[in-house]
DNA sequence: ACCGGTTGTAAGCGTCTGCTTACAAAAGTA
DNA sequence: TACTTTTGTAAGCAGACGCTTACAACCGGT
């Protein structure tokens, strides 16, 4: 895995990217606060002082991670698919998934709990809420969107943190069906459940 | 506030209780990990070494807090009222409420995020889930209960951690109506919404 | 008055945290 | 080659953390 990095040394861009990727993974898994800069550097295979050379602080690195692929990923997804996409991303969190799924929500919601990374996390949450709010004509669209988003947060946390019984071991398709059916009560423009 | 404590010194029971109450408040507000033993001792108005004399460790104190009033409170509430009671407790979290509301969920869910206090927190979550699971005849009752519980977790966190827009400022009655209506899709025995 | 156990206090230990510094090795430029 | 700049490394700093220790103050019983 470090074959590439050892092959070509002294590559600032590669070092930066390695740090960003390692940080994204750890922030998603453990949240902002429980991730240490030493862990990030170790996973990236890089001296931890470089983290501060390239990003200045742990907080700045976090912002770069969130503002990067995460936001872009969200903006490329049509609103009516956001919920299912995000939910499936959350449900697949446990398994070793290399692909670029919606890791954004995981990262920001998981980290929002701490409080330090709140500002950046809140920004991303808002963007998700705005997308969901377009799915209803109700007056309280914003509130409904927030509630659905809160549900995602809870599901993600329950699954990944507490290795809890029913939800932790459940079939993603089943969970998806239940949640989407239920969410349609609040967001009436949500497409019908088409997953087999 | 410390008038009582200064009046009668050298009272082990009072010291213990002061520590438990201070810890309960701080765990609910900040979660397990972000609460320090020094803070707990300070709020209780006692020397922090006493925390270790009476409880042995921060973890043990946490368990005593959760196992104490919290569990008892839950067991006294009939299953069909648990959801609304817990939800209203969560929604009132911001305001200064002295009364014994359902602080249990707040504490354990907020703390479950960290991972250290997971075992104790999971136990309490399970008890809540069991109560909710009695409200449906569906085969996947456990999963449905977990999902609803996860929703509570998400709502509580979104409201108290991120001071986020719509949900943070919303009227508890309104939130209650939306959530309960929606949850009835999954837990059909949930009583009709009777709040004005 | 004396003594043994209980309750409270001050100081500090060892470890971990985010972050900094001083310096060495490689690359670019002449 | 000689010099500057960029990239990487090792060591460590100050502060916070959970927890411990040594000791003083108080109390009840005799």
TrEMBL record, chains A, B:
The keyword Transcription applies. GO terms for molecular function: DNA-binding transcription factor activity; transcription cis-regulatory region binding. Keywords: DNA-binding, Transcription, Transcription regulation. Gene3D superfamilies: Tetracycline Repressor, domain 2. It comes from Streptomyces reniochalinae. The keyword DNA-binding applies. Residues 13-73 form the HTH tetR-type domain. This is TetR/AcrR family transcriptional regulator. Residues 36-55 bind DNA. SUPFAM superfamilies: Homeodomain-like, Tetracyclin repressor-like, C-terminal domain. It comes from the Bacteria. It holds the Pfam family TetR_N. InterPro entries: DNA-bd_HTH_TetR-type_CS (IPR023772), Homeodomain-like_sf (IPR009057), HTH-type_TetR-like_transc_reg (IPR050109), HTH_TetR (IPR001647), Tet_transcr_reg_TetR-rel_C_sf (IPR036271), TetR_C_16 (IPR041678). The lineage of its organism: Bacteria, Bacillati, Actinomycetota, Actinomycetes, Kitasatosporales.
